[in-house]
Amino acid sequence: MDNFANLLDGFAHVLTPMNLLFALIGVTIGTAVGVLPGIGPAMTVALLLPVTYGMEPAQAFIMFAGIFYGGMYGGSTTSILLNTPGESSSVVTAIEGNKMAKAGRAAQALATAAIGSFVAGTIATVLLVVVTPPVVQFAISLGAPDFFALMLLAFVSVTAVLGASRVRGFASLLLGLVIGVIGIDQSGQQRLTFGLPQLADGIDVVVVAVGIFAVGEALWIAAHLRRKSGEVIPVGQPWMGRQDWKRSWKPWLRGTAFGFPFGAVPAGGAEIPTFLSYVTEKKLSKHPEEFGRGAIEGVAGPEAANNASAAGTLVPMLAIGLPTNATAAVMLAAFEGYGIQPGPLLFTRESSLVWTLIASLFVGNLLLLVLNLPLAPAWAKLLRIPRPYLYAGILFFASMGAYAVNAQPFDLYLLLALGLLGFGMRRFGLPILPLIVGVILGPRAELQGRRSLQLSGGELHGLIGGWVSWLIYATIAVVLLWPLIGRFVVRPLRGRLVTA
After folding, report:
1. Predicted structure pTM score
2. Do residues 23 and 66 make contact, with C-beta atoms less than 8 angstroms apart?
3. 439-462 confidence digits (pLDDT tens)
């Protein structure tokens, strides 16, 4: 009942004219950036971080939440109409969605994507309300060794799961950890400052995020710019017939069941549940012959999984302070920019802010449905914006945002250097998320590690606390050794079973 009362209090804060305006701005921007290929929610939130520092925290996070959910919605439009996913999580939607569009059913594909996202987002947000408080109570019982182990798990999971290879994932993490330790440490020693006083306070995470996401992406697009824009399939007013509803509602629910738990797991993301949802719908469908030719279940399920995973990512971010995707990592940086520390004590110290943020997810989800169904043809026109104009604007706002952080020209040089680093990472296939997680969680992991060692008098066994840390270290060992386990244990065992 306390959670329900807190949620009602959150709705009372959200349902004011000014906060509703910020929610509307957030979902509108989020949908727009989701539609445009190459511009995701993480880049947009990073660009807006400097702008929101003069705002109330609640207003800023209401807008960020709208961008987060809106980006998931908008990505389906590009996938369906242009066969170019705006987000990696929308790749699976393009398989059937674009086929439906080419068959003259773009309206039905967009409708099932929008309504499915609304259904999944609403159910997943209810689960967020139910699940997060127990997770907080559990997190309160954890000590410094347990938090240190959790952060190591986050490091290992985002590097071992993402990217083309584990080596590239760990290389990206190492870059992030190096950037994170720049400045003066807790003992007063300067690290990697090279005698520059501007680096004594470290590199602001806003500059890092804007440089890696915005500038790096703009340079990458400029290097691979195609003068000829993609052919956009015309779309009428999105609608669904009775048969479409009948074939979509079960995939919506199954997609939600896949998406939410994967979103809450480090490095789970939205890619895996969307793929699992697609495979499941293909096996359960009464019309398997339509898959590969434009099956509506292949759009409904993955889109629901996509949006449900977005709500799932907020559980570890709010309850423990662990980001599980790039957008959550940038939002975590926004919390720290306001001097707010996500984690077990967040629900006690900033209860009003947290429940206002959660309530805004319900409101934003409804606003997105109202915006997406009637305005889908208008969103499609955004795809006709010339790329040079679009990315020139991004570079301009990135530079202004980085300069606004400390009002130092030095930050512009850092921005360019980080942009070139982001460009190089894309060139050589290094994932971005491990770097961002390393920058944000690296100093926090160092702090928890120091505390653990201080409590044990410098003995390494101090890094191992209770059963939680033992379980986490066992999980880390399995993740790291899984290729060897699969090769020398699982494959021979499978071969023997087949032979028998």
Report:
1. 0.72
2. yes
3. 877 887 888 888 888 877 777 777
